[in-house]
Design a protein that fits this description.
The structure holds two protein chains of two kinds.
Chain A (H helix, E strand, L loop, with lengths): L5 E5 L4 H11 L4 E8 L5 H7 L11 H9 L3 E5 L1 H9 L12 H19 L3 E3 L16 H8 L5 E2 L11 H4 L17 H9 L18 H14 L6 H6 L4 E6 L2 E5 L3 H8 L6 E5 L6 E6 L3 H13 L9 E6 L5 E6 L14
Parallel strand pairs in A: 1-2, 1-4, 2-3, 4-5
Antiparallel strand pairs in A: 6-7, 7-9, 8-9, 8-10, 10-11
Helix pairs in contact in A: 5-6
Chain B lengths: L3 E5 L6 H11 L6 E6 L4 H12 L2 E8 L2 E7 L5
Parallel strand pairs in B: 1-2
Antiparallel strand pairs in B: 2-4, 3-4
The chains are: A alpha/beta, B alpha+beta.
Chain lengths: 347, 77
């Protein structure tokens, strides 16, 4: 009896990986999904933090895709291992701090380890030749297959006809004729295929689903590395970069100021790790100070935070400053004027 | 038998799902797991994860700022 062949599909939550898995599933292969959590994923976190986003219906797109396909989904936390990819990408960064090629190699490598461990036969990705400027080019797609170790056990069903035959095709586990020859940045072929499959309401992330492709986020991360004098980060750092206004009045410290209630609530959770400021005489934001600060720094930060409170036009604004040991002091400060906040302070 | 507690407070999705998933892997079918979360996204994500992976959602409830999701481990975990 022929053995039931099994494949694991890298599921990002976007349309391409959904289609790729579906194409292989339709060839009678048992498919399960794998989704890697790097810490830089866009949607879930900002959605959970910001109050204004909470009115939208929340869903995790990778779980949604798995449910559409009727497949199991294994979500793997790779936050720690992924640091080396972000900090030391062998193939360099893209337009921002996105190490897309190293990232894809790493994820396929992890999937390759997973299939060996779980007795699966091959890996599916939603990659399309020419779709992305770094990781999905005709010349870099073989690099992913080679450097990940997956070699010809890596199948890209949406572009398979543009690529050399893989092991599953040669062995007759899947038919090359039922793969596609998509090429380039146009989304029309994918949308047509989605329609053919009767798929609606799929996610269409603009510019990818990773914060590292975001120019503003990349500037904040680069600033963090520069201020600390080393390229390093912890999970809390990358979470905080997604929240609030970040201003650096002095090289040795920055102020993170919540923009709305949801962010304020989120920053509350960090009050034991950072000196915090909260306006008391007027409604205002919660702010955290990142860096070593003295009394003068705190006074300057207080004037800055007061500027973002409802007392910005007031003569004086009162604030409570909470130190790392939990001790509190009250400050009364004159808010900075808009002119007193140089544009360079904004990160 | 009291449920196995997974404390996922202050974690943002998908971390609560990952915590539940990893704990469930170690438990026999029929065991109940109670996840305590502060990200409201867990209210939809953990039930979705249960549906696709063959686990039973027993209940979801809100207690103040916390969201409690109770899951029963399925046969094929």
């Amino acid at each position: 009896m022929t053995r039931q062949r099994k494949a694991v599909a890298l599921i990002s939550g976007g349309l391409d990986s959904l289609l790729a898995a579906k194409v292989i599933q339709q060839q009678g292969i048992h498919v399960e999904g794998i989704n890697f959590f790097t810490g830089f994923c866009v949607e879930g976190h900002t959605h959970a933090i910001r109050q204004k986003d909470r009115s939208r219906v929340k869903r995790n797109n990778a779980l949604w895709v798995a449910e559409q396909l009727g497949i199991k989904l294994h979500i793997v936390d790779i936050v720690e291992e992924y640091k080396d990819i972000v900090l030391n990408p062998k193939h360099g960064y893209g337009a921002n701090l996105n190490p897309c090629l190293d990232c894809k190699i790493f994820m396929v490598k992890k999937a390759h380890e997973w299939i060996a461990e779980h007795g699966f036969d091959f890996i599916i990705t939603g990659e399309v030749v020419g779709q992305r400027p770094m990781s999905q080019r005709k010349d870099t797609m073989p690099v992913v297959a080679r450097e990940s170790g997956a070699e010809d056990r890596l199948v890209r069903p949406l572009s398979g006809r543009n690529l050399p035959a893989t092991l599953p095709e040669r062995e007759g586990w899947i038919s090359r004729d039922q793969l596609y020859g998509f090429n380039g940045r146009s989304r029309k072929p994918q949308m047509a295929l989605a329609e053919q499959f009767g798929l609606e309401d799929y996610a269409q992330p603009a510019g990818g689903c990773c914060f590292l492709t975001d120019a503003q986020y990349a500037v904040k991360l680069a600033d963090l590395w520069q201020a600390r004098g080393e390229k390093q980060y912890e999970m809390d750092d990358i979470m905080l970069l997604k929240v609030g206004r970040h201003l650096r009045p002095r090289p040795h410290f920055k102020v993170i100021i919540s923009r709305e209630e949801g962010e304020g609530n989120f920053l509350q959770g960090y009050r034991k790790q950072y000196v915090s400021l909260l306006t008391t005489s007027h409604a205002g934001p919660l702010a955290l100070l990142d860096g070593s600060v003295d009394a003068d720094d705190i006074a300057l930060a207080a004037r800055l935070v007061a500027r973002f409170s409802q007392g910005k036009q007031a003569e004086r604004v009162e604030l409570t400053v909470t130190a790392l040991d939990g001790s509190q002091q009250q400050l009364s400060v004159k808010p900075l004027t808009a002119e007193e906040i140089p544009q360079e302070w904004y990160i | 038998m009291s449920p196995v507690i997974v404390d996922a407070r202050r974690l943002l999705c998908p971390m609560p799902v990952i915590r539940v998933q990893n704990r469930v892997k170690e438990l026999p079918p029929g065991t109940r797991v109670e996840a305590i979360c502060t990200d409201p996204g867990a209210l939809s994500d953990i039930p979705a994860w249960c549906r696709i992976n063959g686990h039973k959602l027993i209940e979801t409830r809100t207690e103040g700022n916390e969201y409690i999701i109770v899951v029963e481990v399925g046969e094929e975990s």
